[in-house]
Amino acid sequence: MERVNLDGEEIIPLTICLIGGGGFIGSHLCEKLMADTSHKAIVFDNHSDKINHLLDQSSPWRDRIEFHKINITNNSRFETPIKASDLTINLDAICSPYQFKWEPLDTIRDNFLDAIQVVKYCTESKKRLIHFSTCEVYGKTVSSFLPKDRDLRQDPEFYLLKEDASPCIFGPVIEKHRWSYACAEQMMESLIYAEDAEHGLDFTVVRPFNWIGPRMDFNPRVDGDGVPRVFDCFNNYLLRGEKLELVGGGKSLRTFCYIKDAIEAVLLMIENPKRANGQIFNVGNPDNEVTVKQLAEMMTEVYAKVAGKSAPGSSTTDVSSKVSYGEGYDDSDKLIPDMTIISKQLGWKPKTSLQDLLEITLSYEHQNYSKSIKKALCEIR
């Protein structure tokens, strides 16, 4: 039975070049492409751990997915696969606040300078590009600069983030290292838009708002090193039976979107180019807004449930940003996506509540990591 897109047109199978397709988002996208479409995926990444189940010889999709292990950073070997594909999806990014501080040059190079080549090859070969940016490009909200006693701080007009209207407000360059990532991605978006304006590049830009689900980041000293993003930091503390550290008391507000909901949005972009080309899309769940402290408390309760334990009376401890990320840390105050454009263009809305996505994700983490974490702790002792 033929599949049709939102305009009733037959969906023709595509060859998709996935740069950085072996990671968290890429692995879920590959699963979706294999299970629900006839598209072919050519995946480039430093590792394949998260998609090995698709690459196995016994996999029913083995003939539609191939993996190439390469060092993505500063790699010029993408010209040939981009030209041979119908669509390129660039998922490669450095997006950890820890790296913004200790690897600032790599942050700028990876998120801007290295990505320039991908855009160049797509433009020259007249191939479509879906580029993954970040919600961090918005920076701080207008409401954060209003007096704390002003009712306007609660007006969505001053904090709801709109692709075609909201300003990008960053902190100072000197010392506030966090904004190197946002600046690099904003410049990347501007370059892509300019390539379309001058050379007719068919593009779609995706701004993810905290996509959560199984196979996120890593657990330090088990399958990775360094400091992961906030959700996996909390997850790691829970697995180790430690208190969850709240930077600055965990006052920042965030929204969280289930990865499988988000991947549905990406598939709509892939298969509806007439509706998605030339667009920047927020992809998040504005209904799942909590403070970072509330997230920690919810995760503690949910993990106790899935692990069959009693929730501890006191599960968090406050730490300074200097301790966690070094001097010069800064943060966005509130990240709530306006969903008007993606709803109008693609008819997409998120479905999964924060409670449900936490239960799904933490169940996976407990089942897959609790024994290895316990073993690692015993070896340390």
TrEMBL record:
Leader peptide range in chain numbering: none
Pfam family, one: Epimerase
Domain NAD-dependent epimerase/dehydratase: 16-284
InterPro entries: Epimerase_deHydtase (IPR001509), Lipid_A_modif_metabolic_enz (IPR050177), NAD(P)-bd_dom_sf (IPR036291)
Superkingdom of source: Eukaryota
SUPFAM superfamilies given in the database record: NAD(P)-binding Rossmann-fold domains
Gene3D superfamilies with a match to the protein in the record: NAD(P)-binding Rossmann-like Domain
Protein's recorded name: UDP-D-apiose/UDP-D-xylose synthase
